[in-house]
Amino acid sequence: MSAGGPAEPSAGRATPLRRFLGDIAVLVLASIATLLFAEIALRALGFPPSPTRPDRTLGYRWRPHASYRWKGEGASSGRTNADGWVDAEHPRRKLPGTTRILMCGDSYVEGLHVPLDSTFHRRLERTLNARPGGRYEVIAMGVSGSGTTQEYLTYRNFGAPKQPDVVAV
Questions:
Q1: What DSSP line would sit under the chain, residue for residue?
Q2: How much is the pLDDT for 74?
Q3: What separation in angstroms does the CA of 21 have from each of 12, 24, 26, 33?
Q4: Are 167 and 159 in contact (CB under 8 A)?
Q5: Fewest Cβ atoms closer than 10 Å to its Cβ: which of 40, 45, 52, 99?
Q6: C-alpha span between 2 and 15 (Å, rounded)
Q7: pLDDT at 11
Q8: Taking the model in full, what pTM does it have?
Q9: What value does the CA radius of gyration of the chain take, rounded to a whole number of Å?
Q10: How would you write the pLDDT of the chain (169 residues) with one tens digit per residue?
Q11: How many CA atoms lie within 13 A of 148 on its CB side?
């Protein structure tokens, strides 16, 4: 120790700042490990990640190819299509000679209460295609809780590019 000067910290002893930063690092690593363990445990117990995602236009939408299982009133399970709708896959471009009908709506169009093949839009497509004289494609874009504004925005942002001949709300 020099005369009149502060004492040097001895080698091997941490300063308060280093000790604080070390404690923060341990806290962060422990939090990450805990969250990772919780994620693995929840998935192992059968809790998948959310099949929906936030959407600036509609509030929320289904993720593309997301698995879903509805256990409320009625029951259904399946996967959303590549565009994130509870519907069959549809080509981006309308095939020549095809009449496209777009259904925009709420939970009735979304159709989670019944299996996909039993929804009104799938049944309508089968019925129309059973008649001679043309090919029909019925596209469903439904989100539970939608109102008229969301249905219009669904048409404008997601439905119009599908080139529908008829739009039903």
A1: --TTSPPPPPTTPPPHHHHHHHHHHHHHHHHHHHHHHHHHHHHHTT-PPPSEEEETTTEEEEPTT-EEEE-SSS-EEEE--TTSSSS----SSPPTTEEEEEEEESHHHH-TTS-GGGSHHHHHHHHHHHSSS-EEEEEEEE-TT--HHHHHHHIIIIIGGG--SEEE-
A2: 85
A3: 16, 5, 9, 18
A4: yes
A5: 45
A6: 20
A7: 58
A8: 0.72
A9: 28
A10: 555 555 555 556 779 888 999 999 999 999 999 999 998 888 888 777 788 899 998 889 999 999 888 888 888 999 999 999 999 999 988 999 999 999 999 999 999 999 999 999 999 999 999 999 889 999 999 999 999 999 999 999 999 999 999 999 9
A11: 0
Query: What residues contact 109, with CB distance under 8 A and at least 6 apart?
Result: 103, 121, 140, 141, 142
**Tokens 């119009």 -> residue:** 160
Q: What span, in angstroms and rounded, lies between the C-alpha atoms of 57 and 12?
A: 58
